[in-house]
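Entry 14. Structure prediction run on the chain below.
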Amino acid sequence: MLLRAKTTGLLQVREITELQQKNTKLNQQEMAEGKTILKSKPQRLVLELTNACNLRCIMCGRDEANFNLTKFDINILKNLSPILNEVEEVTLFGWGEPTLHPEFEEILKFLDDYPVKKYFVTNGMRLDKIKEALFKYHVDIMAISLDGAKPETNNSIRVNSDFNFIVEQLKDIVRIKKEKNLNYPYMNFVMTLFERNIEELPDLVKLAAEIGLDEVKGVYLTVFTENLLKESLYNKKEKVKEIFNKAEKLGEELGIKIKLPYFQDEDIAGDKYHKDCFVVWRDFFVGSDGYVRPCQSIADKFFKYDFDTDFEKMWNSEEYQKFRASVNSENMCENCKRCYQSSHANWNNKSAFIQTGVEYAPTWEK
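Output returned:
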């Protein structure tokens, strides 16, 4: 099964409640109508637990800036509890490795008292430490970043990553799932596609099937530093198409879902700056520094999370209203015009692939 960009909804891996269904339906209706003031709650809370990481990936902007390490205040999550019966999902995702947060398991435990789906993205190097928590607190979805189907490829891109360790841990998690007769967590590989590793994409599909994962997702590398220009897949459409087709065919044969970006010059966004964006209707993003932002992929900050302000007032603040009114118009902010977010970027545009000389990380405190 081949999937493209995310839809206005979220991945459904289990039943959601009637209240969640009602909110999601209203949210999508208001999104489609372009409402700037919403009666619905977001479908998803996205919480960046930390900007700290135990890897030094060669394409990551964390190493291009000096900044103070920050960690998410769990009291923000507790303050958001009044809406956790309506929100469909809580995603733990951002610039750092979420499992490094000292209260990671406590956060999972807190969320387990609510019907929200729990989803996080990890580099896999702490799977041995969180393995039990996956089942104890019913983690619904876990994405594992792996940038090659061979140890030497992955480990050269994701410096301090250990391919063999990650694979063995995933095999053990699948073993436990089978022993307990469980269908969670839904697990997928996420691969950043470089010139040096794209030919290994089909082999990653084979590896996912061998381990017992559900999906393989590929995202194009966006280049921000001159030294990686040779790794860009810009203007390499024929090569990309050949490899994507192989991966798709293997996915069909092996029962692995394949999620891939559009080919250059074939993106449904046409000549727009980006595909129609829906994140400021669907998602409420809080960074590890406590600032509410439109999404993880741009530096703009809306405001500091305010414990004394009702959620509805923050969700329909002047900042949110202005962004909803402009994000899909010619008046969008400059960062949005260069969108590289994997689901919304327009892969017909060179700027989605190459953005040397521009700021792209959050403006962290130094």
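The longest helix spans residues 163-180.
Filed with the rest of this week's runs.
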